[in-house]
Amino acid sequence: MSTLPSKQLETFDNAVPERDYTIHIETPEFTCLCPKTGQPDFATIKIDYVPDLKCVELKSLKLYFWSYREEGGFHEKLTNQILTDLVAATEPRFMRVTGIFNVRGGVYTNVVAEYRKEGWVAPTPVHLP
């Protein structure tokens, strides 16, 4: 196999650092293991962020997600760990990670974790009729 899972997140320079804009990333194929049973858990992970000077490189993000496939963890911990790792790599102005975990035993779990750079203020949205 030419690629392997990795916790190493790569970045590239933001081409438009003077502007606030949102990057939305979504992967419906996140998998990890239940820490109690060892059975697989499946989730959609959504990332919304306003970059500052760096953006996350997508192939490294795919390999990063792949690295969780054989790891056990509670949904809350995993979602927050993904946020922590992405913030450390990219140092964004704002980031939100949402973990939407598939039903297990009749229970759905959605976890939302956010980071806001100190001093950053979200721009006022423009609402057009």
Task: Explain what this protein looks like in three dimensions.
Its main location: cytoplasm. Pathway: tRNA modification; tRNA-queuosine biosynthesis. One of its GO terms (cellular component) is cytoplasm. InterPro entries: GTP-CH-I_C/QueF (IPR043133), NADPH_dep_7-cyano-7-deazaG_red (IPR050084), QueF (IPR029500), QueF_type1 (IPR016856). The protein is α+β, with helices and mostly antiparallel strands. The chain contains 2 helices and 6 strands. The protein starts with 10 loop residues before the first strand and ends in a 13-residue tail after the last strand. The chain has a single domain, classed as GTP Cyclohydrolase I, domain 2 (2-Layer Sandwich). The mean pLDDT is 95.
Features:
129 residues, alpha+beta, GTP Cyclohydrolase I, domain 2, four-stranded antiparallel β-sheet, two-stranded antiparallel ribbon, 6 strands, 19% helix
Q: Characterize the main sheet.
A: 4 strands, antiparallel
Low-confidence stretches: none
Integer-rounded radius of gyration: 16 Å
Oligomeric state, counting identical vs distinct chains: single chain
Structural class: alpha+beta
| Ends distance | 52 Å
CATH superfamily: GTP cyclohydrolase I, C-terminal domain/NADPH-dependent 7-cyano-7-deazaguanine reductase, N-terminal domain
Give the number of DSSP strands: 6
Which second-level CATH architecture applies?
Answer: 2-Layer Sandwich
The DSSP helix count reads 2
